[in-house]
Fold each of these.
Amino acid sequence: MGPPSFSLSDADEYKSITDVGQRKKDAEEVMFKKLLARAGYSEEEAAGLWEAFFALETEIAQASIGNAEGASADIRDKAYNPKSAAELAELSPDFPLMEILKPYTDGGVDRFILTEPEWLAKMNELYTEENVEGFKAWLIYQTLTGTAGMLDQECLDIMTEYSGAAVGNAQMELPTEQLAYEMCSALFDMAIGKLYVESYVTEETKRDVTELVNDAVAVYRQRLEENEWLGDETKERALEKLDTLKVRVAYPDDWSLYDYSDYALPEDGGIIDDILAVREKAQSKKVDRAKAEIDKDLWMTAPQTVNAFYQPTDNSINIPAGILGGDFYDPNGTVEQQMGSLGIIIGHEITHGFDSNMGSLYDKDGNLSNWWTEEDRAAFKERTDKVGAYYAGIEVLPGKYVNGEYTIGETVADLGGMSCMLELAKGIDGFDYQTFFESWAKVWKLQESEETAEYMLQIDTHAPGYLRANVNVQQFQEFYDAFGVEEGDGMYLAPEERLSVW
C-alpha cells in the first residue's frame, strides 16, 4: 500500500514546482475543466473542483516520496514495512484503509507491506469533515480521467490533446482498432499475449534468445570468479545468485496458469459496464493470488510487452516476446546485429542483479537482504561514483544536465551489458565490430521535442537515448579500433578517463 499516482507525476513537484511541472499543471487544469464541462458542470463549479482537487493532492504529496528519493539506494529498506491487519487498523483509525483491504482480510490475508508510513499518517490527518469537498473532487478527477477515453470521440480528443501538451508532444490520433487492442491487452494481457505469440514468435527464437542469455550468464560467472575488488564472501554470494537466476524468455511454457474462461460480461452493458465487470473479476483473482502460496513460475508481464527487465524480488531476467522484433532483435540478423542490440540489453539486465539500487539488496531467492560487505559496497561505490560524475557533466539542453546520481543504476547497467557482449565477441572469429556498434546505435534512435527532453531528464532513470549510444561506446577500445577514432576526434576519450565497473 502506498500513495496514488499524482497528476504532476512526481510528488516533489508539489514541494517546489519546476518549469516542466508548471506546464503539466496548466495542461491538467484545462483538461479537467473541459471534461467537467462535458459532464454538465458550470465554469464556476469546474474551477472550484479543480482548486479543491489540487489543494488536497498537494497536501497528500507533501507526505509522499518523490522521484529523487524513490531512486535512492536506501529506498528499498524504507519502503519495506510489513504490517498485520491489526497494526494497520491502529495506524489508520480515521482513513478507511481496512474497508479497502476487507476482501483480503476476509480471505485470511494478514500480512501487508506499507510502503510509506508518513503518507498513511497524512491520510488520517486529512480525512476530516472539512476536507470532504476535496475528496469528492479527487474522486471526480479519477473517475473522469479514468473513463473519458471510452465515452465518446470528443472526450477522447480532450484526453489525447492534453496528455502530451505538458511535455511538448503533438499527440497523434490513434486508429480505433489500435485503441481497442490496447484496451484488450490491458484487461486480458495473457490471453492477448498468447495470440501475439502464435502470430509473431517461433520456438526457434525463444531457444536462440535463451541461449544468448545463457552465454551472457557464463561471461558474468567468469568475471565474478576473476574479480579482484570483491571480497570472497560477497563473491560467493554473487555466484550463488547468478547460478539461481530465473530466465523468462518470449512466453510462458505453461499457459494454463492464465485462464479467463470464468470471466463474464453483462448482457446489455456498454463498454464501461464491461470494463467494470472485468476489473471486479481481476480484483477477486488478485485476492485469490494473495491467499495462495507464491508461484515463482508466474509471469509478471505480458508477452506482447516491448521491454526487458530484471526482477529483484524473484531474481529473474525477463525478455518478453514484444521486444523480439524491430531494431531490438532480428531473428534472421547476424550474430553481431543480435549481440549489439538485444545482447547488450540482456547483459544490462543481468548487471542489475548486482547493482547498488536493486540487485545488491536482494538475495538469490528474491528476499530483501543486503549480502554485500561494507568494504565491497565502498569499493563498488568508488567505481560507480566516477560513472555518475561523468554523466553529470553532460549538458543536454542549455543549463539542463543529466542527473548522474539519479541515473547511475541504468548507466552502470549499460556499461555492464556492452562489456559483457564484447567479452563474448572475443571468442568469435572475424567478429564485425562496426556492425555490432551500429546495431546498438539503432536501438536508441529517437526524435523528441526540447520540452520532452527536459521532461525526461526529470523523470527518467535512464540517460537520454543518444547518450546511451555514444557515451557507452566511448569506453571501449574496440570502438576506437573499428572506426579509426583518434585523439582529437569528437568521440575520443583518453584511456585513463574511460569508465569501467564490471
Amino acid sequence: MSVDRHPFPPDPQHAPLLRALMALDGSTTRVCEAIAQAPMTVQLLSQQQTEQVPQAVREQLGGSRFLHRVTSLHAHGRVLMDNLSYTRLDAVPDWFLAKLDEGVAPIGHLLQRLFVQREQLASNAEIEAALWQHVGQPDLRASRCYRIVTAQGPLMLIFETFRSGMVVDA
C-alpha cells in the first residue's frame, strides 16, 4: 500500500493546529477522522509479542511481556500519523488483545471501551528509534510520548508523530 508520508509542515500558519494536537488529551483517532472527514485506515507495519523492550517501557509499565506495534493511520492516500505502542500483555483484557492481533482497529477505537487516563511522558532516543526505523522521516517537533493507565494500572506506552496528512492543504 503506497501512501504519502511527510513531516508535519513547518509553516507558521499550521503552528496552532500542531499545538492543539500536541496538547490533545483524548482520542487522537477521532481527531484524525474529523480532519480527514473519513474513517482511518490502519496500516500495520510491525507487530510482535516480545520481552525485549527499551528500559523506559519496563519502568513506565512494569510487566515482562509486551506487544510491540507500529502503525500508520491514513486516509485519502495520506498519512496523518505514525504510531509506536507497547502494550503490557498481562494487563490487557483478552478482547483488546484479540482486536490488536487483527491489526485493523485503531487503538483509539479500542480504548473507548476502557476507562483510561493519558499521562504525558518524555520520550528517549531508544523509543524514538523504534518508530523511525519503520517510518523514517524523524520529526520530534510533531511527536509526543504518553502512557495509557487504567484503574488497574499502566497498560500502554505510546510514541506518535503527526504527519502532513493532518493539514488539509498540505
